[in-house]
Amino acid sequence: MSPAANSLFSYRPYWAKRFGTAPVLPMSRAEMDALGWDACDIILVTGDAYVDHPSFGMAVIGRVLEAQGFRVGIIAQPDWTSVDAFTALGRPRLFFGVTAGNMDSMVNRYTADRKIRSDDAYTPGGQGGSRPDRSLLVYAQRCREAWRDVPLILGGIEASLRRIAHYDYWSDKVRRSVLLDAKADLLVYGNGERQIVEIAHRLAGGEALETITDVRGTAFIATQARDGWTEIDSQLIDEPGELQTPVDPYAAQSAPECSGKAGDRAESVVAFPRRARPTRERSVIRMPAFEVLKNDPVLYAHASRVLHLETNPGNARALVQRHGKRDVWLNPPPLPLSTRELDRVFELPYTRMPHGTYGGARIPAYEMIRFSVNIMRGCFGGCTFCSITEHEGRIIQSRSEDSIVREIETIRDTTPGFTGVISDVGGPTANMYRLACKSPTIEAACRRPSCVYPGICSNLNTDHAPLIRLYRRLRELPGVKKVLVASGLRYDLAVKSPEYVKELVTHHVGGYLKIAPEHTEDGPLSKMMKPGMGAYDEFKALFDKFSQQAGKEQYLIPYFIAAHPGTTQEDMMNLALWLKRNGFRADQVQTFLPSPMATATAMYHSGRNPLRRIRRTGEQLAIPRGLKMRRLHKAFLRYHDADNWPLLREALKRMGRADLIGNGKRHLVPAWQPRGTGGAAHRAGRGKAFRTQHTGLPDALTKKPAARRAGAARRR
Q1: Sign (positive/negative) of CA torsion 67, 71, 391, 427?
Q2: Which end of the chain, N or C, is less packed with Cβ atoms under 10 Å?
Q3: What is the model's pLDDT at position 228?
Q4: SS3 of residue 231 by DSSP
C-alpha cells in the first residue's frame, strides 16, 4: 500500500461533469429532471436533515463528488419503515453511500442514562424520532431491499466508531463490526473525501468493487488469506527496543516519551528473527477474534490498546479481525489533506442553507454554526473519552488564511441574517491551528496517543503566531464587527503563548469562554489524559489579568465530567468542594457516555487501563457503574441542587465525611431540607432543574443540551 496519495482534485472528471454544478444537490425526481439528469451516479443516504454547508458531512462528500463530475443525489432522514423513500431517486449507477449523520445515532437518540431524547439538533424543528436506532444498519437494509445489486458503502462517524468489534453501551455487550451487520460491501472511516473519490473513479472506470481492497481508510470483508502479507499476532507485539524473544504481552510496561530516536519511540516491534522481519507496509496485525473478545473484557482492553497504537497514518499497519468464518480487514488510516486540498473542499459551491424542502423550519445544529468558520481538522490531545482521534485523527490539517477570509466574505455577502458577528473561528480545538510536530520524520514515526500528555512533547511546535495573525486579519475585514472564538480551548497550550491569551481575551471572547478541565483530581485526569489543575490556574490568572487590562467583565466556564472510568466517590467529593470554594454552580453537567471504540469505553467495559500494558493481574480501575452510582457522581457536580442533598448526605455519611454536612461555608450540603425538595424526587432519581448560578455571573450562561451536542457539527 503506497504511503503517497493522489491529489484530491487531480482526477480526470467523470463524463457527467457536462451537466455543471447543481444549485443544490437534488432530493427528488423533479429536481433531477430540472437538472436534466436521467439518473444519479451516486446516492447519499443520511440521518441528518440536508444542509448544504461545509459543517455537514453529507454536504461535503456530495459537493466533493460533484466536483469530480458525478451526479449526486441526497436522501435525507428517510422514512425507514418502508422501502419507498429509498427508491425515490431511482437506481444509482455507481453506489449508495450511507451514513447515520454527523453523530452516532445511539449517542444522538439516547442520554448517558440510556433514556431516549426528545430532541434532535439535526432535524427540522429540533424534534426527536426522525431517525431509527442504529441508523446505519436500518438504512443499509432498506437500500439493499430497494436495489439489491447496487454496491453499498458505509461512512461517517457511526461507521468510523464501529468499524471493528466494539463495546456497545446501549446493549451492554460487544457487537460485531458494523460492516458485517449492515451487509455492506465497503466501509470508509475517518474524514472520507480522499477514500470516496478514489473509490468512485475506480468504479466509474469499470473496476469491480470486490477488487478495491487497497484504499487507505477503508475496511472490507475477506474470506481467505491475502498473498504477500505477513500476519502478526497482536499478542506478540512488544514495546520498543531491539529484537528479542517473545515476552508476556500482559507484562506491565509504560510507554516512553516520543523522540526522534528509533530506540526511544513507542513503536510496536514483533519478535521475529532479524532476517524474517516483515516490512511494515506488507504487515497486518491479527487482532483477537470477535468470538473471543465478546466474552473476555481483558483481551478487549488489549485489542483497544493495539488499535490505538495503529492510528498514525505515517506508520500504522493494517489490522484484521476474525468474525466467524470471515475477516474484517482494516487498511491503515487515510493520509491527511494538504492545505490546498482542504481549502478547495471548504470553498466548493455550498449554498450554506438548509434544503428548500424544509420551508424555513429551524434546524438547531445549523443555527449554531450558521455564522461560524472551521479553520482546521484533527486534534492531538488524545482525550480518552473523545471520538475525534478515532475519526479525524491527531494530525492537524489547517486551512490557509486566504481561504478562511474568502469564506467569511461569502458569509458576509450571501448568508441571510448576518449582523457582522462571526460566531466562532475554530474547530475541534480552537487553538491548534497550524500546530504540528517540528520534524515530519519524527511525526511519521511517533506512536504516542497524545502530544500534550503527560506533558507537552518537546518536539511539538506550540507557536500561536499564525493564529494571532489570522485573528488580526479577520478583525480588519469590512463588514465584520466581531469575531468570536467559541470552540473549546486547550489552555495548557495557550499558556505557552501569553500574547495569544491577551489577543483572545481582549478581542474574541463574548463575555465568557468555555474550557474543559474535566476534573480536579489526578486519578481521573490520568485516565482521561488531561492536564492537572496547575495549567488551569495559570490560564485563569492570565485570563483575569488581560480581561482587567481590557476593561471587560469576562468569565471562564469550566466543564467537568461525572462518572468517568477511574473516578471514585472521594474524587467527586473533592471536585464538588473545589466547585464550591470557587463559586461554581453547574447547570448542565456531563455524565460520561461510553461511545464505541473510545479508550475510556474500553476502560469502562474491562476495568483495565489500556494506556498501559494490559495483564490479567494488573491495575483494576474504579468504574462507576449502574444508575445509582452514576447519579451520585452527577449529584456531586450539582451539590447546590436541593433535590440532590438527601443522596449526598447518605453518601457522605457512608464515606465517613459527615463533617461536610452542615450550614457553614466549609460544609458541602446543609443539614436542613427545603420543603418540596428531596424526598420522593430523590427516591425516583428525579429533581427539578435549577438555573446556573455563579458568583458575579449573569443567569443561564450554559448552553442547552441540544446546542452543546450540535457543536459536533463543526467538527465532523
Answers
A1: positive
A2: N
A3: 86
A4: strand
Question: What does the CA dihedral 360, 365, 366, 368 come to, rounded to 10 degrees?
Answer: 120
Task: Give the whole-angstrom CA distance, residue 166 versus residue 488.
Answer: 28
256 three-class SS: coil
What is the residue range of 113's domain?
A: 15-223+325-330
What is the C-alpha to C-alpha distance for residues 183 and 148, in angstroms, rounded to an integer? 11
Expressed in angstroms, the distance from the first to the final Cα of the chain is 27
542 — phi, psi (to 5°)? -65, -40
Is residue 541 in some structural domain? no
pLDDT in tens, 186-225: 999 999 999 999 999 999 999 999 999 999 999 999 988 8
Distance separating alpha carbons of residues 433 and 373, to the nearest angstrom: 13
pLDDT < 50 positions in the chain = 1-2, 238-275, 680-716
Of 604, 592, 610, 615, the C-alpha closest to 174 is: 604
pLDDT at site 249: 39
Is pTM beyond 0.70? Reply is: yes
Crossing angle (nearest 10°) for helices 645-654 and 626-637: 100
Q: How many domains does the chain divide into? A: 2
CA distance 116 to 604: 21
Residues 130 and 164 occupy one common structural domain: yes
Q: How far is CA 623 from CA 398, 518, 526, 606, in A?
A: 37, 17, 14, 9
